[in-house]
Amino acid sequence: MSLIGFLLMQTATIQPFKRYANGEDYYGEPEERPCRLQRTRDLEHTYKNPAGGMDQVLARAKMFCEGEPIPERSKVTVDGAEYIVLECYRAFGFEEDHLEVVLQ
Predict the structure, then answer these.
(1) Residue 2 and residue 72: Cα distance in Å, rounded?
(2) How high is the mean pLDDT of the chain?
(3) Which of 37, 44, 61, 71 is most exposed by smallest CB count within 10 Å?
(4) What does the angle CA 16 – CA 2 – CA 80 come to, to the nearest 5 degrees?
(5) What pLDDT, on a 0 to 100 scale, did the predictor assign at position 60?
(6) DSSP state string for 50-102
(7) Which contiguous run of DSSP H or E holds residue 23?
């Protein structure tokens, strides 16, 4: 197990975003991953919305996990609270890389 793996004490259920069609979001099969969720109230996050414009929002949480990157607009449930992925990027540290996921 990697060093960061010892810090991932929670479990996230992830429904990966697949596509938007006919006015609806479509998701893939849910998967579970070990994670660490950091709740926050003042994490400002700027991102490019689906229409191509820039939006600035206050993110509700940041999640740390391992594995393949999680698509934007995916649903994440941790400890009974549901979040939407605003951004997911690979970060380096703890000898191996991990994912940092900004959630709204």
Answers:
(1) 25
(2) 86
(3) 44
(4) 40
(5) 86
(6) TTS-EEEEEEEEEEEE-SSPPPTT-EEEETTEEEEEEEEEEEEETTEEEEEEE
(7) none
